[in-house]
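Sharing a chain and its predicted structure for anyone who wants a worked example. Both blocks are below, sequence first, tokens second.
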Amino acid sequence: MPFGLHWPEIILILVIVLIIFGVGKLPQIGGAIGKSINEFRKARSGESADDKAKDKELAKSSEAETKNLKAG
């Protein structure tokens, strides 16, 4: 199990979370945790779409400058 936790410890933690937050808030908390994990994975995996578009523009402009220098 992760972090050396076994099933009894995991169940105890879940019961404590249930007592603290209640049944009504659990879907909201789960959704927020899922979104956070998703954003973390996106940030860790690399660049955003805007960064990729900027990189493509920069590559095109540098290719054009290279052609101009070779022609001139």
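Comments welcome. The first helix runs from residue 7 to 21.
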